[in-house]
Backbone:
């Protein structure tokens, strides 16, 4: 578990960053926001070349806070506690951490703030949990189905606001 822990980059990161950058090379961003964790901020710094403004780092874009479980292997965790959490992850907090509902609250607050205060093209570099939290909200799908949203590492998701209630989403 390494939600809030700032772990180093995988050796494949330069190649993955090149692939993402190539897909987005013709896109100009009015703003770039990022989780402050290295595994997102490094990519955000690369994307920032397509804008004149500094990156906005926001803690609300961090992955789930795994509290006492941070940096522990799943098989090291006490089976009863892990099973109880996975069975009720929506509302059950990890010991000294947060629940998925907590993550949704902060991620959706970020999304609401951005959509109310900014127009134009905004890049948000964040973690899969944050993406799932925002997507369950804008797509109006039940949170308990969140794991049905397959979001591979390096996924690009385009979200267009059609009006105050409707959104268009596509995955690349």
Residues:
């Amino acid at each position: 578990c390494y939600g809030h822990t700032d772990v180093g980059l995988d050796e494949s990161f330069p190649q993955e960053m090149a692939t993402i950058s190539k897909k987005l090379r013709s896109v100009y961003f009015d703003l770039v926001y990022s989780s402050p964790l290295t595994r997102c901020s490094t990519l955000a710094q690369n994307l920032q070349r397509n804008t004149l403004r500094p990156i906005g780092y926001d803690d609300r874009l961090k992955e789930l806070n795994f509290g006492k479980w941070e940096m522990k292997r799943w098989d090291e965790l006490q089976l009863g506690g892990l099973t109880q959490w996975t069975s009720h992850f929506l509302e059950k907090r990890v010991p000294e951490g947060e629940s998925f509902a907590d993550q949704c609250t902060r991620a959706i607050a970020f999304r609401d703030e951005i959509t109310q205060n900014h127009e134009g093209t905004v890049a948000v570099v964040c973690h899969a949990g944050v993406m799932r939290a925002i997507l369950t909200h804008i797509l109006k799908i039940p949170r308990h189905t969140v794991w049905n949203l397959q979001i591979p590492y390096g996924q690009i998701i385009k979200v267009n606001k059609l009006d105050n209630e409707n959104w268009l989403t596509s995955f690349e």
